[in-house]
Design goal:
Number of strands: 16
Order of helices and strands: EEEEHHHEEEHEHHEEHEHHHHHEEEEE
Shape: flat
Oligomer: single chain
Strand order of the largest sheet: 7-6-5-8-9
Helix content: 25-40%
């Protein structure tokens, strides 16, 4: 062997060493792969011989082999598809003027294209007319994690009362500020043990959730948290329903394999806690706070809970705050009844109902990391049922099912 278990080179007087006999020791384990060799791990000595090569010659051999292996990995194979004459009948354009002009250029007769589903989707109108408002049984909460700088906060908001709680998941190392006003905290963490400890701390301070929903964060959905928190305090936990993100057609294989399986929570499911997170950040900005430290968060939450809430006040008929609704069960019930009445009116509004078998367009969600080619999901979709405010939508090609709110659907005329 050319290298001992300590990672240092040893002189070898045997036969010349081949490339595949060159090892590197990583954490006491020999790795038979030159790609793992790191030149920073050794002091290269020009005149020290090993076998028949110097260290510099071995290193040159390594670089040459690594370059060849890297180039081999970059090789891609594509099968050339033979297109039929009518595959490019529209030349990649939708506009009739371009199609007719190119037909004249190539001496072809214009053929009326097959009827295609247009890319039009009235999202703003649908949001205005068909968005249902979230209500839940009493003591239902949404939970999520928010990060500011290197500090994570567990946020909990009551679905009906909009009452907010926030607790850092970082363990504070030094409670009091030093002479420069600096508070030292531990690294930001969000594992199951920490999340359970933070929820226990909130419970010890009077938090009494009966129903919890989250986006499936591992710190909330693990068996450990279920055992030490949910089962112990008889809390019913569930993950919010999810929907597909940006969807690509099947002929775009790389993009469809990468993105078509990705999902995100349905907007209405976590919309309440998403909005309060934005509000917290806006308040911090207006207070000229960069990183929200625990004392700052405590004041922000206090201000939020005691300020008039526009949505609650609308249904209450007068100015109310989250604290007022949280501490008055009759007021909470009144507001919930008003919201349910509004949802009933929306569901019975003209155009809301979509019968089973109706062909529909499905809104294609935007994603900041991908480029959406169309505002509607590619494929043909039909309505296959309705349950708890969501339509069951079936893909006619692969029979896959999505649960989608009404405002993200539009019937195909």
């Amino acid at each position: 062997e050319a290298i001992t278990h300590t990672g240092r080179f040893a002189e070898v007087k045997a036969e010349p060493i081949t490339e595949l006999q060159l090892y590197r020791v990583i954490n006491g384990r020999k790795v038979n792969d030159l790609s793992y060799i790191d030149k920073k791990s050794y002091e290269w000595k020009q005149n020290h011989y090993y076998g028949t090569l110097t260290q510099r010659e071995w290193y040159t051999t390594y670089l040459q082999r690594r370059k060849r292996l890297t180039e081999e990995k970059k090789i891609e194979e594509y099968k050339i598809k033979e297109h039929k004459p009518d595959d490019h009948i529209n030349y990649g354009y939708k506009g009739l003027d371009k199609i007719k002009s190119l037909n004249e250029h190539y001496g072809k007769e214009y053929v009326e294209p097959k009827e295609q589903i247009t890319n039009y989707f009235p999202l703003k109108r649908n949001i205005k007319n068909y968005t249902l408002h979230k209500v839940r049984p009493r003591n239902s909460w949404l939970i999520d994690l928010m990060k500011s700088g290197k500090i994570y906060y567990l946020l909990a908001i009551n679905v009906n009362t909009r009452y907010l709680l926030a607790e850092p998941t970082n363990a504070t190392i030094e409670e009091s500020k030093d002479a420069d006003g600096i508070v030292t905290v531990s690294n930001s963490v969000k594992n199951e043990k920490i999340c359970a400890d933070v929820m226990q701390k909130l419970i010890n301070h009077g938090w009494e959730p009966k129903y919890l929903e989250s986006d499936g964060e591992g710190g909330f959905s693990s068996d450990y948290v279920k055992r030490v928190i949910y089962e112990r305090y008889n809390i019913k936990y569930q993950q919010v329903r999810r929907q597909k993100k940006t969807v690509y057609p099947s002929f775009m294989k790389d993009e469809s394999q990468k993105w078509n399986k990705k999902t995100e929570p349905i907007h209405g499911s976590l919309g309440i806690i998403d909005r309060v997170t934005r509000t917290i950040r806006d308040m911090a900005y207006n207070m000229k706070i960069g990183v929200i430290l625990p004392p700052d968060m405590k004041k922000i939450v206090e201000y939020y809970n005691n300020a008039p809430h526009k949505g609650l006040s609308k249904y209450a008929g007068f100015s109310v705050t989250p604290s007022m609704v949280q501490n008055d069960s009759n007021l909470e019930e009144w507001i919930v009844r008003k919201i349910m009445q509004k949802n009933y009116e929306i569901m019975n509004r003209k155009g809301f109902k979509l019968n089973s078998g109706t062909n529909v367009k499905v809104y294609n969600e935007k994603d900041s990391l991908s480029k959406r080619r169309t505002v509607i999901q590619p494929g043909e979709f039909i309505i296959d049922g309705f349950n708890k405010g969501l339509f069951k939508v079936k893909n006619k090609t692969d029979n896959s099912i999505q649960l989608i709110p009404r405002y993200k659907l539009h019937p195909v005329v």
